[in-house]
Amino acid sequence: MATDRKQHDLSPAAVATSWLHRRLSCALEAAHGRLRRRVTAMALAIAVTFGSGAFWYSSLTGSELAAGAFGAAALATVVSLLTAVALYPVLRLRNRGLLQAASTISHDNIDLLSVLGKLTELRDGETAGHNLRVTAYTLLFAEALGFSPDEIVRATKGALLHDVGKMVMPDRILQKPGPLTPSERAEMTEHVRYGLEIVSQSHSLQDATPVVAGHHEHYDGTGYPLGLKAEDIPREARLFALVDVFDALTSPRVYKPAFSVQEALATMADGRGSHFDPAMFDRFVQVAPAFAAQLPGDETGLTQLLMDRLSPYLDQVVHLEPELVE
């Protein structure tokens, strides 16, 4: 058990996740620190300037009011108000810079998630581009269903990392040429638990949780690991279940040729209401042909499509580490 734990902690996914967490935390902490120092210095400079000017003016005029306690309080209030007014545009500017830094890091994180997804794909023997294709389908379908930017980012991250738990599954399971035994199938289901453990290591990866946890649940409650049913299954996971099966059917495998779009949808119709959310399935039937037609055939094109379509949502949804927000 100790040996398994050590191997788990040193897996490529765990190392990359730890690096991502440290990189995001350090970058945002540095940006936030620079913001605090600059604003503090500017506030002191403005306060000293206004205070000196007011003292000089009161000395020249010999104002009795300024010399009294009430005058001092009034002067301090005026200085504070003027300082606040002067700092407001500065605060907005610096905050915009902080958010831009966080947005840039979020964009970089998608690249790292893609790498993790590719490692999982290679480890599991999936067809080339599977992770990128299901992520592109997820993004397009989420848009068609009217998902919020938050939901789109969660669904997309989940699609990229849906099978990341397979990184720590043994070769005797993943690489077995024949069908799995009942005990081996039970062991395979553990990849969901491993995946949840991996994404829980970083705040920025926890968005993937709904899909990682629920992509093997079935609408009628016969799936795993929890046997969730209908609306109890996260919406992002119900969406992903459709696009994952669709891509598996429309891609060539060693044991079958690629199905056409219509053949795939006809096959999937048997799972309407049992495996798949029936309302989502009906909508997917309408939009799947257009989605399949617009997906690039190479991984470079898929990556570019994802970044182009996902960037506006990343700019709207910037997740700051909680300990960095005061």
Can you describe this structure?
Helix 5 (130-144) packs across helix 13 (278-294). The protein has 326 residues and is mainly α. It is globular. The longest helix is centred in the N-terminal third of the chain and has 56 residues, at 69-124. The protein is 71% helix and 0% strand. Mean pLDDT is 75; it is low at 1-17, 101-105 and 319-326. The protein has one domain (2-324): Orthogonal Bundle (Hypothetical protein af1432), CATH 1.10.3210.10. It is built from 14 helices and no strands.
- Using the coordinates above, name the CATH class: Mainly Alpha
Overall outline: globular
Write the CATH fold name. Answer: Hypothetical protein af1432
Fraction of residues in helices? over 70%
Helix/strand class: mainly alpha
Major pleated sheet: none
Low-confidence stretches: 1-17, 101-105, 319-326
Short description:
Helix content is 71%, strand content 0%.
List the helices and strands and how they pair.
Blueprint: H1 2-9, H2 12-61, H3 64-67, H4 69-124, H5 130-144, H6 149-161, H7 171-174, H8 182-188, H9 190-199, H10 209-214, H11 235-250, H12 261-268, H13 278-294, H14 299-316
List keywords for this structure.
Hypothetical protein af1432; mainly alpha; single chain; disordered C terminus; disordered N terminus; 326 residues; 14 helices; 0% strand
